[in-house]
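SAMPLE LOG
Freezer: B-3
Tube label: C17
Construct: single chain, 343 aa
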Amino acid sequence: MKKNETVPEIQSLNIIELLAREKYASTGKNMTYEEYLYVLTHPDPLPTVSELASPWVQAEAAKLRAQFRKRFDTEKLNAEDFINDDCPIEVEYLQRYIDIPPHRHDFVECAAVLSGECKHTINGVEYVQPSGSLAFVTVGTLHKLEAVGNSFCVTMKLRSDYFQSLRLPNMIHFINSVMFSCGDDPLFSELMLSLARQQREKPPYCDQLMKRLFEVLFLYIMQNYQDTVQYLTSRISQNEKIISIVGYMMENYRTVTLHSLAERFHYSDAYMSRLISETLHTNFSTLLKAYKLDSAAELLKSTDLKLFDLCAEVGYSDTAQFIHSFKERFGTTPMKYRREQKS
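STRUCTURE (predicted):
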């Protein structure tokens, strides 16, 4: 199966995109996000391009601009407004010929280009996302994504706590916004389209299946395209610094403390704490605790270590505290978790 055989189902423009393309053809400009919101709230009958330019419509659009621009310009968009409570993943198609303003959000966003190319501006730097590429945009990153012409892009919004909870290889890459290049790989396209179909059609068990499909996609990218990783940032020195810090934490997670970590990199404790918080949007204790518990979960699946020895292996001195923390993270006790995984 060739890649271009997996894409035709999503090539045609929807009715609003057709109107936006008509505006682009006559004015050379995309439909503004406020005009798009206006059309969504006035779909019957759909306005014409000339009606969009009328003073009355523009006045209505200005009200929408006042309502939404503050969120785009000064605040993070919230997962609660974009991701359903019952599933930590939301998949949608990127609207074409519509200008979405630069924005930040408190969730991770992935953008997969399946045909054509997209312009992706991240922290003020413009990148071209070609067909067969997948970008991960981290929490709090200012970015803007725009399809070029009829190009087709699927986006995924991932709750930050869900993404951080994944015990997947080389998560250190995702401290930064990154892009992988998969070329004409048909499985990459099919996995993205399968996620989109589950979202659109909502068959039974779709929420569970979407999580599994994303993990398969992630593992497949790491297995086959890790060497194509491109860091999408203009703050190279800062990113190299935090990669080194997190790498040291992972290597020494059993014994590392905030003080020993700060001392290792010649910082004060307060500066190290602030650097981790501002860059990773979590604190030292939460990050270290999650890594210890995830390591413990792996040991429960792969070894027969007794609980006391397992606690010592991951740096817990208090068995009762470990059981409490493990149950809080995984919803079950360590021994039940082991039995369930091995069965």
